[in-house]
Design a protein that fits this description.
The complex is a heterodimer of chains A (227) and B (135). Chain A has a single domain, classed as TIM Barrel. Chain A is 42% helix and 18% strand. Chain A is built from ten helices and seven strands. Chain A has a seven-stranded parallel β-sheet with strand order 1-2-3-4-5-6-7, sandwiched between helices. In chain A, helix 4 packs across helix 6 (146-166) and helix 7 (185-192) packs across helix 8 (199-206). The radius of gyration of chain A is 16 Å and the shape is globular. With 135 residues, chain B is an alpha+beta fold. Chain B has one domain (29-134): Alpha-Beta Plaits (2-Layer Sandwich). In chain B, 43% of the residues lie in helices and 31% in strands. A five-stranded antiparallel β-sheet of chain B has the order 2-3-1-5-4. Classes of the chains: A alpha/beta (227), B alpha+beta (135). At the A-B interface, helix 1 and helix 7 of A face helix 4 and strand 5 of B.
């Protein structure tokens, strides 16, 4: 069985659920590791993790910015301090500047939390070039109903088509705020099949790609170029 | 068992009629039994949970899809978790044999039951109840 990772989980101090508790449930569900990506504007990002879970829990940050300059400043601030740098997308301008910046690892909620944003084929191409993973947040499907859910599924289907075309990286995450929001890997695969993702693709997006992102597998070429 | 056979003998006519009405095995629909575990903020009642499972299925697949998956809640009870000592809900659900992934998605879409947050995970799948319980 592959090692599964969930790279978008929010825990203490943002949500009040301790990291240990979150990891206990995730481990029970069959995850090999999770990444705590709290929003940078709600809490101060702490660099140290409880020593008991530090081998399996990765410290990340999800940057929420209103303008491009703010985004650039924050990327510069957090770069190198955390093992995972995600950007809270949604807005088209933010999406564009995040995907053009190879320092970013993940673009979370590319179509907004309620499917309001947009991602064009040009941007997905930038993502493929820069090795930035497009994040499919399944909580948008879980926590919405009727027209909202239909719109979210439609947007995800469109993004999936572009991701397949340009061979960009994609990951599936739960964006969990509490232990009740976590879902087991096979449930995530079943949810991903709702917007047309095949089983192999979904397993790949839950195991190999997140592992590669944590190892910065797709970033090496770019760094060599800069030197 | 003894009681049943005795009763059967006395009402032989009805017994034969009853067996004649049962579908032959080759015509019976194939089914799968899913064992699921529920973690929740507070204790969840069986009726509440069933309503939420139905709502989730109808909302996700519509009436036609829900009719095809033939969901039936066999049983639901709470069990003590070995690790933490807290109560977790465990239930068995019956569905059509080719709709397991759909039912799994519908279960995963449940995020709250009467304002109490819940998380559902499928623990085992089998073609018989016995097999599902021991999986």
């Amino acid at each position: 069985m592959p090692n599964f990772f969930d790279l978008n989980v929010h825990a203490y101090p943002e949500t009040g659920v301790p990291v240990e508790e979150m990891f206990r449930v995730a481990k029970r569900y069959g995850y090999a590791g999770i990444a705590i990506t709290n929003h940078d504007d709600t809490v101060k990002v702490k660099e140290d993790l409880p020593p008991s879970v530090s081998n399996f829990v990765f410290r990340g940050v999800e940057i929420r910015a209103k303008s491009v300059t703010e985004l650039k400043r924050k990327i510069k601030l957090h770069r190198g301090k955390v093992s995972l740098l995600a950007v809270h997308g949604g807005n088209e301008v933010i999406n564009e500047s995040a995907l053009k910046d190879s320092r970013v690892d993940i673009l979370a909620h590319p179509c907004g939390e309620k499917g309001g944003g947009d991602l064009s084929h040009v941007l997905v191409r930038y993502a493929a070039e820069n090795g930035i993973a497009i994040d499919f947040n399944l909580d948008a499907i879980i926590h919405s109903k009727r027209s909202d859910r239909a719109r979210t599924l439609w947007k995800m289907r469109e993004i999936l088509k572009l991701v397949r075309k340009y061979k960009a990286l994609m990951i599936i995450t739960s964006n969990a705020q509490s232990i009740y929001d976590l879902r087991a890997p096979r449930e995530m695969v079943a949810l991903a099949s709702l917007f047309g993702m095949r089983k192999e693709e979904a397993v790949h997006a839950l195991s190999d790609i997140p592992e590669g992102i944590l190892e910065k597998k797709w970033k090496k070429e770019k760094e060599v170029e800069i030197i | 068992m003894k009681m049943k056979s005795a009763k059967c003998k006395s009402q032989n006519k009805f017994c034969i009629l009853h067996f004649a009405l049962l579908l032959p095995p080759s015509l019976r629909e194939r089914k799968r039994y899913l064992v699921f575990a529920v973690i929740s903020e507070r204790e969840i009642d069986k009726r509440e949970l069933l309503k939420e499972i139905r709502d989730s299925t109808y909302s996700l697949y519509g009436d036609v899809g829900a009719s095809e998956s033939r969901i039936w809640l066999i049983g639901y009870d709470k069990k003590k978790d070995a690790d933490t000592g807290t109560d977790v809900g465990v239930g068995i659900l019956r569905c059509a044999h080719d709709k397991v992934e759909e039912v799994r998605a519908a279960l995963a879409c449940i995020h709250s039951v009467n304002e109490a947050r819940v998380g559902i995970r499928v623990v085992g799948i089998s073609g018989t109840i016995k097999g599902a319980i021991f999986s």
